[in-house]
Write a structure and sequence with these properties.
Number of domains: 1
Number of helices: 16
Distance between the termini: 11 Å
Largest sheet: 8 strands, parallel
Number of strands: 8
CATH class: Alpha Beta
Length: about 325
Amino acid sequence: MENQPLSSFIKSMPKVELHVHLKGATRPETILALAKKNNVELPAKNLAEMAKWFEFKDFNNFIDIYSLNAACFAEPQDVEFAAREFLTEQARQNIVYTEVTYTINQRKMPFKPQLEALNRAKAWAEETYGISMNYVIDIPRNFENMNPSAFSTLFATHAVQGMGQGVVALGLAGKETKHSVSDFSDGFDIAKEAGLAIIPHAGEAAGPQSMLDAIEYCNPPRIGHGVRCVEDKNLMALLKERQIHLEISPTSNICLGIFDSMANHSFAEISAAGIPFSINSDDPPYFNTTLTDELIIVAERLGWSAEDVQAHMIKTAEATLLPEEQKAALINKIQS
């Protein structure tokens, strides 16, 4: 670790990512190709227009754009192709293990062929690059005229069916202010009964109450984002007491207006409070970032050494949902 620039160390070290959306990590050129293949009308017709389209007005505007792009996936081969591209990029960054969030396309494909496509890509990446991934199947809470109870039941049932086949958690994502966490409790009950972890997005577009609701209804080992916990000192104390891990994606939060600058982001306060957290990329092409970039930004702002970065990555590995034996092997890989 000595006599090596911190950025070079971060680029080369084995890494783990806990919060990245597969469809949000799909390259713009791939989205354009899928839209053409599957006859999906997008307001952007080339990469320059895509870049302009990705100048988000606010969080809800981002979700609308994300949802339209996700609709470009119409066949299992689309899922497998995007997953292979995603894993190739993870390998390029030496991200050896990812717990990737996957939003089921329930309108065009049954779940089983989608899961099979993911697992073909996973097996290919394990053989080709020696890296792996597992899945958080999220409940999207942004569809118009949706029935939260029926939606959560459907997605939770799919997630439970995928246990032992790569699915390690049920998630909750989308427009945080559109439906409360409690609206999806029927699905959470299914996951809990099956012993499946629940990892909801909360404390991003909405404030501390959404996190308190998530803790009450989901009993989560981790929370996606959670960066607005700093608005409630009692909540911060609870997160520390229960060691609930926050999946933080700084550039995403800046691009979506949660904070106005990296200097004003809450990750330094969260770190100082002793709340466990990881650094993640969320939807990297949408925000023109990578996990490597995010780690460099945070490490420099917090004054981390190479040893600090490695210790952070070990804690990230400890927060995975892998069996203990696999978790130990992952930590050993980070330390090697």
